[in-house]
Amino acid sequence: MNAKILPLDGKYYGTKVKIVDNDNNDFVINLWCQDDYEPSDRELGSICTIDEWRKDEAGILYGDYIDSGHFESRATYHMAKTIVDLINGGE
Q1: Which of 39, 46, 71, 77 has its CA 20 to 30 A from that of 23?
Q2: What pTM value is reported for the model?
Q3: Distance of CA 27 to CAs 9, 16, 51, Å?
């Protein structure tokens, strides 16, 4: 069995984790944490760093780049990575 986080694609509707079981069946689970309002590094991409994002509290500099309700949060990415690591035998 193995798992991977799928790339971000278009408007965000959750972080997708693809799991392939030992019989080669594909599963996709979708994660979305609505309690964390900080974008993941993947979401920020080349727009800015997380430190720059945090300093821009009013969203004046970077707010136009991230849709306020549709972005991958740091908590969501962390949970997706945890799931992938557990399935793939990591810590």
Answers
A1: 77
A2: 0.85
A3: 18, 10, 35
Q: 74 lies in which domain range?
A: 2-87
Determine the pLDDT at residue 58.
60
Q: State how many domains the chain has.
A: 1
Q: What is the C-alpha separation between 33 and 71, in angstroms, rounded?
A: 10
pLDDT, tens digit, 9 for 90 and up, residues 41-51: 998 888 888 88
Report, as ranges of residue numbers, the positions in the chain whose pLDDT lies below 50. Answer: 91
Structure-token match 């009013």, residue found: 58
